[in-house]
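Figure 3 (text version): C-alpha cells given as input.
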C-alpha cells in the first residue's frame, strides 16, 4: 500500500474547482463519521512536464491565506502520494503556493452549482453532507463549492482490516435541483452480507438544516 518513491513536483495552471477534502470512516451502518482535513484544488495545467487535469490537497490555513477560486492562475510545489489508496488528490504536502493571476470574472451569485468562494471547514462540518451520485460529481456538480470527493476507510474487520475507496458527497442545500443520491452504497463487513447505506444516514448527518439551507 505504501509508495516509497515519493517525489516533489512543481505545478501551474488554472483552478477549475475548489472543494473540501475529508476523511470518512464507515462501520457497518452504525457509523459514518466525516472529518474535514483541508481542500482539494482541482487544476487544469502543467505538472511534472505534462498538461492535464489534477488535484492538489492543501490545508485550511493555506486556503484561507491564498483564497483560491475558480479561474485563478496558480503555481506551487507538492509531493506525490505515499498512500495512493487513502488519498484522492494526486498531490499533497503543497508549498510555495502563488496566485499568478486573479480570476477575471467571479460570478459570486451563481447557484446550482454554487461558484462563490469555498467557506471555512467549520461551515462544512456544521452542515453535514449527503451522498452524491458520482456521475453528478464528475459532471454538473464538479465546480460547486459544496461538492466533495472523500477518502473513505471502511472498518472491515474491527481493529484488524480496513477497506478503502473514494466517495462523492454534497454539502449543499437539500432542495438543489441538480441533486441525485445515486445508488445505495454497500458497506461490507467480514463474513457478513454487506449492509447498504440507502440514505437515512444522510438524514442524520444533515438534520441540523432545513431544505433550503
Ligand atoms: S447537488 Fe450539491 S454539489 Fe451539486 S450543484 Fe447542488 S449543491 Fe452543488
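Below: residues designed for each position.
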Amino acid at each position: 500500500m505504501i509508495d516509497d518513491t515519493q517525489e516533489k513536483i512543481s505545478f501551474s495552471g488554472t483552478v477549475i474547482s475548489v472543494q473540501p477534502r475529508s476523511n470518512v470512516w464507515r462501520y457497518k451502518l452504525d457509523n459514518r463519521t466525516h472529518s474535514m482535513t483541508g481542500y482539494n484544488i482541482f487544476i487544469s495545467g502543467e505538472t511534472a512536464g505534462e498538461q492535464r487535469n489534477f488535484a492538489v490537497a492543501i490545508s485550511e490555513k493555506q486556503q484561507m491565506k491564498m483564497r483560491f477560486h475558480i479561474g485563478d492562475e496558480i503555481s506551487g510545489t507538492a509531493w506525490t502520494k505515499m498512500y495512493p489508496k487513502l488519498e484522492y488528490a494526486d498531490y499533497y504536502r503543497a508549498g510555495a503556493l502563488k496566485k499568478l493571476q486573479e480570476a477575471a470574472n467571479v460570478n459570486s451569485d451563481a447557484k446550482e452549482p454554487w461558484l462563490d468562494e469555498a467557506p471555512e471547514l467549520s461551515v462544512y462540518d456544521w452542515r453535514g453532507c449527503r451522498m452524491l451520485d458520482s456521475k453528478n460529481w464528475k459532471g454538473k456538480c464538479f465546480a460547486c463549492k459544496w461538492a466533495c470527493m472523500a477518502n473513505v476507510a471502511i472498518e472491515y474487520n474491527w481493529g484488524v482490516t480496513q477497506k478503502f475507496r473514494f466517495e462523492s458527497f454534497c454539502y449543499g442545500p437539500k432542495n438543489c435541483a441538480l441533486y441525485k443520491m445515486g445508488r445505495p452504497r454497500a458497506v461490507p463487513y467480514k463474513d457478513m452480507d454487506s449492509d447498504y447505506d440507502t440514505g437515512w444516514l444522510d438524514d442524520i448527518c444533515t438534520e441540523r438544516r432545513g431544505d433550503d439551507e
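The longest helix spans residues 60-66.
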